[in-house]
Amino acid sequence: MKLEKEEADYVATLFPEVEDIKQTNLRQKVIEAWIRGWRYGGWKLIEDIPYAPEIPKISNVEHTRAATRLAAEIARILKKDYNPDVNLDFVIAGALLHDVGKTLEYVDCAKEHIVKGPKAGRLIPHSISGVYLAMEVGVPLEVVLIIPHVIGETLVKTLEANIVKYANNLIADAVMKKELGIMQDEYVKKFMKL
Ligand SMILES: [Fe+2]
Questions:
Q1: Which residues have CB atoms below 5 A from the ion given as ligand 1?
Q2: pLDDT per position as a tens digit, 17-27
Q3: Structural domains in the chain plus CATH codes
Q4: pTM score of the predicted model
Q5: Distance between CA atoms of residues 83 and 44, nearest Å
Q6: Ligand 1 centre and the CA of 6: distance in Å?
């Protein structure tokens, strides 16, 4: 798929952390996956997608950026102090994509923000549809396996995947505590049909 410059610039502006990905090819694929999800989900704007149906005032963009910044910091510390092989590009790309599947899963959350789209994605957890979007644009497997994070769906655990998982969980705990007064575990029990 040829990236339209306007769309690519829009995604890069929403997620400035994408510029921290050193491999140009990977950077473009992260942007492309978001553009695909945006198109397939039929959202007017990517920033209209909520973090969670029960927390509409926090956007998925805001959450993704927070999780990415935290994951990158953890990765930098672990890389410097313990493991120089930690792949920072993979961590940043995986964090930026870990919730891209919400473009498809959450199409029923904010009907006024939807202009078109098949809506079939609402039946698939975002951790799975995110894998689909990433694989469709050719994101490398090391990054793809970071995306299924919700119920531990991956067979192989990597340091990069765990960094994103823990960063995401910490951000989720912080947001849910602030907005709903509960931790993520309680939220999952209460609202998610897993
Ligand atoms: Fe997340």
A1: 99, 168
A2: 999 999 999 99
A3: 5-191 (1.10.3210)
A4: 0.91
A5: 42
A6: 26
